[in-house]
Design brief:
Helices cover 74% and strands 0% of the residues. The protein is globular, with a radius of gyration of 21 Å. The protein contains 17 helices and no strands. α3 packs antiparallel against α11, α9 runs antiparallel to α10 and α15 crosses α16. The two termini are 12 Å apart.
């Protein structure tokens, strides 16, 4: 068990954000069938799934923001040592869990008759092309970003606050506003926007969240600006399910325009949540006793491992929720599924952590 001294050195709001994010990921995966099994957007179960999905869309952006906030603080003295310490512990679980999910999907779900050699060829192809299992894409993305850290960490440390604000603004315009406008145009004309000047690789995709997390962690926004961002983020919580309903009605099937990790509402919700818990950090730390801090630390430390294992646990323990279920039936079933998947995943992770070789193989030494 971790000592009180170690617990006290933790950044408690970062730990809380990790816990909230992994719970949100579980909610997203468990509620997904409620949204995709029907095109009747008036059912109670669809609306519950829509609201919970909308509320939990902060999860992936916050995970990337936390990673940026934490890892970009460190000084990379040796690229080889950095790869050994940071990237290898991601590559090994990626291969291990790709194999586990690949075997289960191929021989249990599909009941395939593939021979060993055919499976190896199929598995190798899917491993190289990120086609093994739905949630493992995160490892590919975070590994790609970590590969840039030896350079990006030097970049952010040499930048002034104004420089980083400029980067974040340009990333916001390229990856969020432009992509959102392009998606809108596609829905209206079946053609995406095509402005080559907006195709700027350094300002695209999850690297922006990575640097945004570093910025929000290290710099203080003015109270007025924080207030504005927080209120817009709160509004996004309420707007996302309503907007999703209307665009889905227009399309005739679920439209994830406002669910995307680069959607304006997802970004604003993630920023608001990050800022809220950062502001409350001192208050939370002061009011939380050491035993609770140790529990928070333990759950936070297991979040990555829970992410890897939770879909496997969900296949075994989650109960199917009928499309026409009542409000009470849907709510109770969702609470059962989320709680059960989370707790069993956590317990299994801790049991597996008793063996350090298993921990290295499955979780990269985490948990």
């Amino acid at each position: 068990m971790m000592s009180n001294a170690v617990a006290s050195r933790r950044i408690i709001y970062i730990d809380i954000l990790r816990i909230l994010s992994i719970v949100a990921v579980i909610v997203l995966h468990i509620t997904a069938p409620l949204l995709t099994r029907t095109n009747d957007f008036s059912t109670t179960s669809w609306w519950i799934g829509n609201v919970l999905n909308s509320v939990c869309r902060f999860a992936v952006p916050v995970f990337f923001m936390i990673s940026g906030a934490m890892i970009l603080r460190t000084e990379v003295k040796s690229i080889a040592e950095f790869y050994k310490k940071r990237i290898l512990p991601l590559l090994v679980p990626l291969v291990a869990w790709s194999l586990i999910y690949g075997l289960y999907f191929q021989y249990v779900i599909l009941k395939s008759k593939l021979g060993a050699w055919e499976f190896i060829l199929d598995f190798g192809y899917k491993l190289l092309t990120d086609r093994n299992y739905v949630h493992l894409w995160f490892l590919y993305s975070i590994i790609a970003i970590y590969m840039t850290v030896p350079l990006i960490s030097k970049f952010v440390k040499s930048c002034s606050e104004k420089d980083l604000r400029y980067y974040i603004l340009l990333w916001f315009l390229v990856s969020v506003v432009y992509q959102f406008a392009s998606q809108i145009k596609f829905r209206l004309t079946e053609q995406y926007l095509d402005f080559p000047s907006f195709n700027i690789p350094f300002f695209e995709e999850y690297l922006g969240y990575f640097i945004l997390g570093y910025y929000l962690f290290h710099f203080e926004l003015t109270p007025k600006f924080k207030h504005v961002l927080f209120n817009i983020g709160i509004a996004s919580f309420f707007l996302t399910p309503v907007l999703t309903y209307f665009v889905s009605m227009q399309k005739g099937t679920l439209d994830e325009l406002f669910y995307g990790n680069y959607s304006i509402t997802s970004l604003l919700t993630a920023v608001a949540l990050f800022l809220y818990f950062k502001d409350k950090d001192a208050s939370i730390s002061r009011r939380t006793n050491d035993k609770i801090k140790i529990i928070i630390r333990a759950v936070s430390a297991a979040s990555f491992s829970i992410y890897l294992i939770h879909l496997l646990i969900e296949m075994f323990v989650a109960k199917e929720i009928q499309v026409d279920a009542s409000f009470l039936q849907t709510t109770v079933s969702l609470l059962y599924n989320v709680t059960t998947v989370f707790l069993i995943s956590f317990v299994i992770v801790k049991v597996l952590n008793l063996n350090r070789w298993v921990t290295q193989l499955l979780f990269g030494g985490r948990g």
